[in-house]
Amino acid sequence: MRNSLGFTTSLISLAVTALLSACGGHDNKPPAEVVTISTPAVFEVTLVNLTAGQPLTPMVAVAHDDGFKLFNPGETASVELERLAEGGESAPLVALASSSKSVFATAVGTGGPLLPGAGNKSTVYLTVPVASLPNLRLSMASMLGNTNDGFTGVYAQSLAQLTAGGSTTLRLLAYDAGTERNTESADTVPGPATANSGGKREGFNPVRDDVINVVHIHPGIVSKDDGLPTSALTQVHRWDNPVATLTIKRTQ
Predict the structure, then answer these.
(1) Which range of residues forms the domain containing residue 56?
(2) Is 204 helix (H, G, I), strand (E, B) or coil?
(3) Within a domain: residue 26?
(4) How far apart are CA 247 and CA 144, in angstroms?
């Protein structure tokens, strides 16, 4: 009995020791934390110029929520939009977007003006937090270079339903910023159409003298060929809407 009891006691002792070891009884370190890294969403934005004679200045693309507004038809243009629409300046709009807590990402096209032509396109990328997707919007603007204050773009386009690998293509209209009269003169059109005219080719001017002082659909180019005496432009600078396409693809 003594041997049997001793054998049984040894087995119990070994079992308790094994249990304590398995439970970490000799080590009081807390379990390692599991860190979850959220992969951002990435959008590829591609602009194509559909006009015959209007170069498009480098686009400014902004990913934002409802708290930011790049432009809105029927409302007065901001000074930052005016500077883009009259002179092709992107920096003021970028600064405006960067100062807003409602903006998640901003990108500017590179490589100079986007010229007409089937093979020409400009692409930028916007990287945003996944948490922003339910309220995510895209706005974009680009000047029509051979105009007084014409531009094309999109305002507050929802991207919430665009899943990874999905894409959508928008047909863009021409807008008038409503900040400068459409004289089409060599003194007020800064684009290449007036390069050899001897005119001032002025870009931004803080004085607003348009009859319609809000953003609206551009009435189009009249040109000197159709009897506008102040115009330095010709029929080649006219257009039919849409003036461009914008393809948005979620790559990640």
Answers:
(1) 41-250
(2) coil
(3) no
(4) 19
